[in-house]
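Predict the holo structure. Ligand: histidyl-adenosine monophosphate.
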Amino acid sequence: MVKKKQSKQVEKIKKTSKSLSLLRGFKDILPEHMKYWQYARNVAHELFSDYGYGQIETPILEQTSLYKRTTGEHTDIVTKEMFSFQDRSGDSISMRPEFTPGIARAYIEHGMLNRPQPVKLYSLGPLFRYDRPQAGRYRQFHQLDFEILGDENPVADAEIIFLSYLFCKKLGLDVVIQINSLGQSESRQEYIKILKEYYKSKRRLLCDDCKTRLTKNTLRLLDCKETGCQDLTQSAPQLIDHIDDDSKQHFVRVLEYLDESEVPYELNPYIVRGLDYYNRTAFEVMPVITRPCDEISLEVAPDFVPKPEPLVQAIGGGGRYDGLIEAIGGRPTAGVGMAFGFERVIEAIRQSGKDKAPVKKPQVFLAQLGEEAAKRIFKLFEVLRESGIQTRVNFSKSGLKQQLELADKLKVPYTVILGQKELLDDTIIIRDMENGIQEVVDLSKVTEELKKRLKSHE
Ligand code: HAM
């Protein structure tokens, strides 16, 4: 009996001490990847401040009804993907699945309507969608989002699209903008009826998801990725032929601005976007995948197995949303904006090989022998850092051999060594890591001596 109890306890301890892992669909960003993140973030901050956008941070938690009334009650995001829960007072709360509704709420709540219009805002941060995890699709991901509120002019749509392009260009990414017009809600409703009729006659050929979409979210059938549904879409009636005249005019003017600014774009009648609030312009930013020359061969060997094509996903998307602010209690206010999926942008930078992310290479390693030397090195580290020298140290290693091995691994051109003798003499040894030559210099002169030597390595 006692034995049984003991073994149960052991089992329990084993279970609780089992190492814990990441939640499915979540991701750690490790220090070795952070350089890409910092680089892309810096480019974003510089670009948006140059163009007069103010940075805004809204809370991660908002009322669930905010997303129901904007993103859309029947959209995938609201029906299946939100992390929602009741807080202690029983209110339904959701972790933000996108920025736009929160930014619109802040615009109303802080009376931004009374500021000079339009108001231009951008934000960068984490979002949460309980999506099916796959490459480029996470449950926690980041967006760079930017919006122009209070401007119905087509030039605002063009500015958002131009900045999307410019951001990619600055990062060395080749992209094309796929663009469509969704018209105004009324003309779209008419079109949806026509589309429903078309797909109804072909219902049995649709995938299961599209069978549900047919009644709840018909437009989304147009961007289903299943081959069977895509084949049907090819001959479906096109939205652009059914939109109202004002929206057509608006669209033409947006395209004229884009032509002027030489943004590469393609008209794509199947872009409908997965959120309810859009009217008129809708667009997505697609990476242009160019295969390296050595992969292209005209002669195909008999046993040739084609490499699977990389999954081409939009790295960003957006559009106009003139009814959104009103839908959440504000005065009628036009809006247009877009968001980049930051993980996808980072992956595109890595794949492009045009990694311009600056990395500061370590220049000097500090090796210490003994407790007293360690204390002095502790202080010296800060002196060198302040003078701009990239310095590394490892206090957990005490032997000189181990420390020199580390310095070798870090590929520093110089190691500074401080032992008992140097401590007494107020000197220090500078070791050239390439040829092993060591020189003794005064401790007070170490910064200038190192700077002199490092100059020849620039
Ligand atoms: P969205 O198309 O839902 O639009 O998301 C924009 C981008 O976020 C996508 O193109 C994609 O790159 C990225 N993204 C979306 N879901 C995931 C995910 N699960 N994992 C990784 N990346 C993801 C919006 O969110 C709108 N609020 C954009 C907007 C701003 N429209 C007007 N203003």
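The radius of gyration is 29 Å. The chain has two domains: 31-184+243-352, 364-453.
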